[in-house]
Write a structure and sequence with these properties.
3-stranded parallel sheet; D-Maltodextrin-Binding Protein, domain 2; alpha/beta; 2 domains
Amino acid sequence: MYRIIGAGLAMLLAGAATAGTLDEVKSRGTLNCGVNTGLVGFASKDSNGEWRGFDVGLCRAVAAAVLGDPMAVNFVETTAATRFTALNAGEIDLLVRNTTWSFSTDIDLKVDFAGINYYDGQAFMVPKTLGLSSARELDGRSICVQAGTTSALNVDEYFDRYQMSYEAVPVEGTAEAQTLYLEGACEVYSSDASQLAAIRATFGNPGDHVLLEDIISKEPLGPAVRHGDNDWADIVRWTLNALIAAEELGVNSANVDELKAQGTSTPEIKRLLGLEGRMGEMLGLDSDWAVRAIKAGGNYGELFSRNIGVDTPIGLSRGLNLQWTEGGLLYSPPFR
């Protein structure tokens, strides 16, 4: 009986601790957002020391929705080893760091995912001089892979499946992996395809390196909050959904003010922009929360194109991240 009461009390205390995240963020006046230590296209500082990137854009959208200011973000650099500890310890309010939504991260690590902002998969990068075209040709090669991540497990499983062997070169982070790979300490670098493309873009001669076409895993990446932080998770989830729905509905950073001011005949756009209904009130925000989120950096398509799209050094095509109406997996639940 004592154990049951103790466990119940612990759950109640945990719930009380997380229930006030929105109030804490508002009181503080800034959003503490955990991001990568520096991954070009997703989260990195520019020459002026300003944070930019696809993940950065989601942090700013949440800050705009909640605080009315997309610049009211304190970006906290996290590694693969520290990101969940920082989140659960309350050092950050939100984690947006190329993080895979899996059973173990969801259940065992006690974090709640608020959606998927990038559908990814693990791949391999090799020097073009090796003349390789398939991951099935990697038998016996040395591979840099980040220790303690799903990436390491995926490599193990892939090589076991095809009865191949490899020499693991464990690394702590992307900076170390990049250095060892370029120095030839490992012949292959394996990570999420988007991450490999971002890293390759920083090389002096990106064209000297090839991403093999084989994708060996599903890596749905998304923002995470503390387990049981339901009200805050709703805000993050529907901010992301607002950016996704805005693209589908033709709402963007250039026309959102005009649509808000002049109105529209499309019911879902009316609800999204707070022209009717009480969605902002239900989230504990005002009616313009989604308008501010969209204006912060644009809708989902704008964020993608500007930071990691085909016309950037990262050069990623939309692929699975196309809207569901265009053959992709991107899909927002309806605003109704």
